[in-house]
Amino acid sequence: MEETIISSGRPFPSLRQVFVFIILFTASFQALPVMAQTKTVEGTVKDANGIGLNGITISIKGGTGGTSTNADGKFKIMVPGPNAVLVFSSVGFTTKEVPVGAQTEMSVVLSTGNSALDEVVVVGYGTQRKKDVTGAISSISAKQIEERQAIDVLDAMQGQAPGLQIAQESGRPGAGNSVRIRGIGTLQGGADPLYIVDGAQGVNIDGINPNDIESIEILKDAASAAIYGSRSANGVVIITTKKGKEGKPTLDVRYLTSLSQLSHKIPQANAAERRLLERKRSGGGNLNTDSLNPSFNADNDYQDMLTRTANRQQVDVSLGGASRNLNYYGSLGYLSDEGIIINSWAKIMRGRFNIDYKATEKLTYGNRIQFSYQTENRIHEGNTLNQAIQRPPNFRVYFPDGTLAGVIGGRRNPVAEALLRKNEYQILDGNFYNYISYQFLPELKLTVDANVKARYTHHLEFSPRLLSSSNDNDGSDEQDWNTYWMTQAYLNYNKTLGGSHSLTGVIGVSADRNFNRGSEISGTNFVTEEVTTLNSPQVYNIPNTREERYTSVSAFGRLGYSFKGKYLFNSNFRADASSKFGKQNRWGYFPSASVGWRFSEEPFMQWAYKYLDEGKIRASYGVTGNDRIGEYDAVRTYTFGSNWYNGISGVAPSATFGNPALSWEETKQTNIGIDLSFFRGRLTFTADYYNKITDKLLYQAPLPYETGFDEVNVNIGSIQNKGLEFVINGYPVKNKDFSWNVIYNMSFNNATIKSLYGGTPIVSTNWITEEGQRLGNFYGWKALGVYQYDESNAYNDNWEQLTPVFTGGVFNGYTLDGKAYNGPVNRLRTQGNILKGGDMIWENTVKDSVIDDADRIPLGNAQPKWIAGLANQFSYKNFSLSFNIYVSWGGLLYDRGRQQLTNNLISNVTPDPEYIREAWAQPGDVTRWPVPRNNGMGNARELSSIYLEDASFIRLRNVRLTYSLAKNITSKLKMKGATVYVYGNNLLTWTNYFWYDPEISFNNALQMGQDNGRYPRKREFGAGVNLNF
User: Model-level pTM?
Assistant: First the structure.
C-alpha cells in the first residue's frame, strides 16, 4: 500500500537544490560591484540634416554586446561604466567613437564618408573624389585582389569590373593574358591597354606582386584616358602600390601552398575504338586480332601520362611604416609554380621598395624600385598536348628497358617531348622610378619624375635526336635586351574660390625613349647532347641580330571646374610626336571634355533624401590614339645576310614597303553614364553607354608581286565598338556580427566594321572582315549533313536536292517535295571527285556543280554577346566566405583541335570516340559525321560549321573561406593579427564546349576565336596563412 504524505508547506529542498542556491547566492555578491558600475545610455543618431538614422550599429569598444537604432534613430544600450567608449558605424557613414563619461543621454551626428561615391580614385596625374569624376572609371580594391590568391595582376582583375575582358593565353605557368577594355579597336595595331604604376609608364606588370597593390583604377572612356594621348586608345590601367601606415612598423608574412590538377579531360579513343576506326576505314577488311600482340593489347591514356598533380608554393614578406616625414614599404616574394604537364614550371622572385620622404614642408622626394627574376620551362604545346590527343593509344611510350620511344608512324611521343625538349626562359626585369615635388603655394605643386626600366631575356631551346623524324638534333640561343626611360614635369593646381567655385588644373611635358637589341644563333647536329651550348653544333644557321628604337615627346594639360560640387566640368588635351611616323604625320592631337551634374544636391530632390544619397549624370567625348606599330613601318628598311648573288651575301630591301604617309589610329568616343547611391551607401549603381569609333585602322595590305614587295602598312578604315555596362554593389545584410556584400557587373559590346579601303573585304584564311558586319566572322563551308547513299548526291537544275527512293533495297528513282521526279539529275563535285554516300553535304552557295572556295560564307561570330562577374562575400564574426563567378555568353569558337582529330586521319591520327562510333559506315546511316577514309574524312574542309562550337560558359572562378584569430589570442602571441584560409580556383565550369576550355584570348582581331589546342587550365585547391606583426 502506497503511503501519501500531505504537507501544507513547501517541499523540503534536495541537496542539489541547496548547492545551486549557495552558488548563485555567492555569485550575486561577487557581481554587486559590477552592477554598481553599469548604467544605461540612450540617445539618438542623426545625419548632418538632423534626420534620424535607422540601422546604425552601436557597439562597446573592446567589449561585447551591442544594439542598433530604430526607425527614428533612437537607441538604448547597457555600458560597463563611465570609461566605456561607444562605436557608431554603418555602411555609408564615417565610423565615430564617443566616450560615455557621465552621460546617460547622447545625441550623435554621423557624416557621410564611406559612400562608394565619396572614395578617392587615382586619375591621370592626380586624384579625384569619385563623386567628382565625370568620366567612366572602375576601381578594384586591395581587398578584392586579396580574395583571389592570384599569381599576377591580370589574374586578380578578371571579372572585377564591367567592360574589362581578360583571358589567359595559356594555362602554363608564367603565361600571359590578353586584356581588352570595351572591345577591340584595332586590326593589327597593339590592342592592350596602357599600364601606369605609381605614375610610371612602361613598368612590367608581370613583375608586380598582387599582394603589393593598394588599388587599381581602369580608365575606359576618352575623357579619362585622353591625357595619355597616343597610348590610351585601348584604355588605361592605373595601379597604385601600398605605402606604410603611421605608427609602429608593420611586418606581414604570407604563405600559400596548393595542389592542382587537369580540370577537364578530352574524351579519347582506347585501343578497341582504334580498331573499330581501322575496320571502318578498311571497309571491314582483315585487321590484327592477335590479343597477344603488344600493339593489340597496349592501351595508353596519354593525358594521364602527361599530366600530374602540381604544387604551387608562395611566400611573401613585407615591411612598412610611417612617421611625420618618412613613409616606407618594402616587400620580397618567391613563387614556385609547377605546371600540370610534366616538366613544365615557373619560378619567380619579386621585390619592391617604396619610399616617400618629406625633406621640408614644401619639398618631397620619393622613389619606387621594382625588380623580378623569372625562370621557366615552356612546354611545346603542339608537340605534347595535340600529339597526346592524336596519337593511337597502342603506340609505344617506353621500351621494355625503360627508355623513351621516339617518333612512331609519324606521331611524336608526347611524354618524350615533355621530358626531353628544353625550352627555358630566364627573364630579369628592373624598374627604378624617382620623383621630386615642390609645393610652391598651398594650391600649386610642381612634380618632376624620371623612370628607367631594363629587361633582359635569355631563351635557350634544344631538341634531341630522339624527338626528330630525321634523326637530327637542333638548338638555339636567343638574347634580348630592352631599356626604356621616361621623364615628366608637370604642375598641379587646386583652388577653391569663395566656397562655391573649385578650380583644378594640370600642365606638363614628357619625353621617352625605347631601345631594344637582340641576337639569335642556332645550329644542328650537336656533337654531344650533354652539352647544348652553341659552340658544339656541326652546322650553324645564319645568325640573326636586330635593333629597334623609338622616341616620343609630349605636352599635356587638364582643366577642371566645379560649382557648389553640383555642376562639374573637365577637359584634357595632349599633343604627342613619335619617331614611328613620317615627318608629315609625326604629331597627333588628342582632346577631350566631360561634364557632370550631381542632381541629388538640387533642392527639388529633398523628397528622395531618405533613400538617395548621391546621384550624378555624366557625359563625355574625346579623342585618343594608338601608336602600337613597328618602329620602322614608315621608313624603308633592308635585310642583311639572307640574299645571295653570285655566291656573295648582300643587302636587299625588306619585304614590307615603308609608308611615310602612315598616320595614327584615332579613337573618338562618346560616353553617357549615371552614378547612384542609396540607403547610406548600402546600394550603389553605375551604368555607362558608349559609342567608340576608331578611324585610320593600321593594316598590312598585300602588294602585287610585280612591285617586288609583299606588303605595306596603310590606314584603311574604321571600327565601331558600341556597348552598355553596369555594376551593382550592395549590402543586403549589414550588422554587428554578420554582413553580406554582393557585387555584380555586366557588359555588352558589339564591334562592327564601319568602313574599309575601297569597300574590299579582308579574307584572312578562315575569317572574313567586311563593311557593315561584326568583327570576328568565321568564313567557311556550311555543313548540311551526310549523304546517306551514293544516289543522295542528286539535284535538279535549280540545285534543289532530290530524295532517292529504294524498293526492296534497290534504287527506284527520285522524289522532290514528296512527288515523283523525272527531270534531269545533277551531281556535285569537289576536288575533282563526285560526292558519294558518307561524304559531307555542303551548302551550294553559288548554285553550280562544284563545291569550292566560292561556296564559303560567313558562319557565325567569335565575339561573346555579354560577359559578367558576380562576387559575394559573407562575414560572420571572425569567419569570412567569398566566391566569384565569371560568365561569358554567346560567340563561337573554331575547335581546331577537334578538326585536326577528325579531318586528318592520315599519319595515324586517332579521332575522338564519338566520331569513331557515329561516323557513317554503310548506306542508309543517318549521322553528322562523314565516313573515315585512309586519305582523311569524307571530302572534309578545314573550316566548316561542324567545327564551330558554342563558347558560352559559367565558371566558379574562386571560393575562399577565411578565419581571423581573435585579438585576445594574437595579442598574447605578440601579433597584430593572424588569418588562415582555404581556397579553390576554377572549381566548376558549365559549358558545352568539347575541347579543354572555351576561355581563350582574342589577340588577333582578324583571326578571332581559334583554339589550337592550348595548355589546359588547372583546377586548384590550397591553403594559406597571413601573419601580421
Answer: 0.85
